[in-house]
Amino acid sequence: MQRIQVSLKVNGKKYRLETPPNRTLLEVLREDLGLTGAKDGCSSGECGACTVLLDGRAVNSCLVLIGSADGHSIETVEGLQKAGMPHPLQKAFVEKGAVQCGFCTPGMLMAAKALLDQNPKPDEEQIRTALAGNLCRCTGYTKIIDAVQEAAKELRYE
Amino acid sequence: MQSFNYLAPHSQNELCQVLCNTAGKIIAGGTDMLPQMRNLKQTPSTLIDISHISDLRYIQESEDEVLIGALTTWSDILESPLIQKTAPALAQAASLVGAPMTRNRGTIGGNLGNASPAADSLPPLLTLDAIVHLNSQSGQRQVPLRNFLTGPGTTDLKADEYIQQVSYKKVALPFGNVFNKLGPRQGMTISIASVAVLLALDANGKITLARIALGAVAPTAVRCPDAEAFLLGKEPSTELWQEAAHQVRKAIAPIDDVRGTQEYRHHIAGILTRRALQTAYLSLQE
Ligand SMILES: Cc1cc2nc3c(=O)[nH]c(=O)nc-3n(C[C@H](O)[C@H](O)[C@H](O)COP(=O)(O)OP(=O)(O)OC[C@H]3O[C@@H](n4cnc5c(N)ncnc54)[C@H](O)[C@@H]3O)c2cc1C
Ligand code: FES
Ligand code: FES
User: Fold this and answer.
1) Per CATH, domain A4-79 is 3.10.20.30
2) DSSP codes, B173-209
């Protein structure tokens, strides 16, 4: 069985690993690096539970072949906190009640981070567009939108 | 996932050699390929990952043409002022593809290569008379998009070729170019039917350019030459759009599938066409 060498930077830390090529970035993050924040909800790009940032852009890690992540920089939900302090998005999700079962939350947070990194002052429509690929079966989305708006405010130091 | 032999060329030269020496299947963004491999619709023994060939990702213009590299993502297209100006319907289609995550990975080359009759790049590109540029060890070949598409999921691509870029001639401003699709739901949806139109008028308000292309209502995305010819030289009106929509309904051959019935597709293809023509016309009045 062929094995390939892959270099990744994940949450600022460099990794060099060897793996069979028929694996996704999601599998490697969860199984090899122990980063189980990103979830496997559908394995087909439909639910967004596996969302991570690749070179700053939100992607479905279940649809990224590990070989094509080689040389790229990845951010996962585990990288959001700084020195034990939650990211403003994480804080707002908790405070606004945007988390129920939590399965969608890591993906939601990363899709929301990609949005706020690009657009510090999104309106509701823009938030809904940015999160259109992240399904939540619990919250009804309203509180998630509120949380993103709240976090955007805090990030702008308003 | 099934196992496969994995090759990742880093240049177009290397890719030509790989394609010449190995019977392999190309993967770009993987947003079509990985789901298809998971449900065994694709079982490649060798996978050729072209995502590391950085010089296949560009949007360029010459005096009279726009060139889009195969690895250009939907997000690149959506954010490009050049595309917004020269191919508004394509930018609009890009904004409606999947979710941001899909648009950040999915490429235009992959959309063409997958050749789904519902692929959203196709109607806009057909209204621009786009040309697909193919490359291989034995040289380059240019094929009009309408000949490149040979059936649902099939193209004129040879085993040793890859899609290098797609190009179109700039249309003289002003023109209206609109894309419209209907899916099972608002966001993140595969088209039940889609339409792109391109419209230009002369100083007297008569139609000088009319191009209509539809997706998901025939074995390939199609142009509607009869409806186009019918519109030429006429003055825009609601009745005219109705009649064009009627012509379009005659030209298509939709099927039943999980997303919609044949009858429903017939119905909405006309409605989408009428609306797109009106929107294109209104955009010319601005
Ligand atoms: C959740 C979701 C939503 C989607 N929504 C839409 C939508 O709204 N509209 C739409 O049109 N599509 C949609 N798609 C389908 C898909 O994202 C697009 O077709 C995308 O453009 C495919 O590009 P890719 O780079 O991911 O292709 P890949 O999956 O990498 O490849 C697709 C096919 O093209 C071939 N190929 C790729 N690049 C080349 C090349 N340069 N030369 C030759 N052959 C090549 C491959 O061999 C394969 O057969 C969706 C997919 C998902 C998962
Ligand atoms: S697990 Fe990747 S989108 Fe659902
Ligand atoms: S909180 Fe349960 S799926 Fe979103």
Assistant:
1) yes
2) SS-EEEEEEE-SSSSS---SEEEEEEEEE-TTS-EEE
Query: Which CATH code is given to the segment(s) A88-155?
Result: 1.10.150.120
**Residue at A26: amino acid letter:** L
- The kind and range of the H/E element at B244 are helix B238-251
Chain B segment 177-236 residues within 8 A of A by beta carbon are 187-188
| A interface residues, B as partner, C-beta within 8 Å | 1-2, 4, 20-24, 43-46, 48, 51, 54, 57-60, 62-65, 67-68, 70-71, 111, 114, 128-130, 132-134
Here the ipTM equals 0.96
Residue B197 Cα to ligand 2 middle (Å)? 34
pLDDT in tens, B131-169: 999 999 999 999 999 999 999 999 999 999 999 999 999
CB within 8 Å of A146: residues ≥ 6 apart: A92, A96, A98
- The number of CA neighbours under 13 Å toward the Cβ of A46 is 7
Ligand 1 binding residues, C-beta < 6 A? A 45-46; B 25-33, 35, 50, 70, 97-98, 102, 105-107, 109-111, 113-114, 119-120, 157, 162-163, 188, 190
Phi/psi at B100 (5° precision): -50, -40
Q: How far is CA B254 from the centre of its chain?
A: 18
Nearest to B196 by CA among B103, B84, B272, B108: B272
A121, A122, A123, A125: CA torsion to nearest 10: 180
Indicate the pTM of the whole model: 0.96
Angle, helices A88-95/A142-155, rounded to nearest 10 degrees: 140
C-beta of residue B201 within 8 angstroms of C-beta of residue B175 = no
What is the nearest CA distance from A44 to chain B, expressed in angstroms? 5
Model pLDDT for residues A75-133, shown as the tens digit of each residue = 999 999 999 999 999 999 999 999 999 999 999 999 999 999 999 999 999 999 999 99
Cis bond leading into B144, ω under 30°? no
d(CA A133, CA A49): 9
Domains and CATH numbers, chain B: 5-49 (3.30.43.10), 54-169 (3.30.465.10), 175-285 (3.30.390.50)
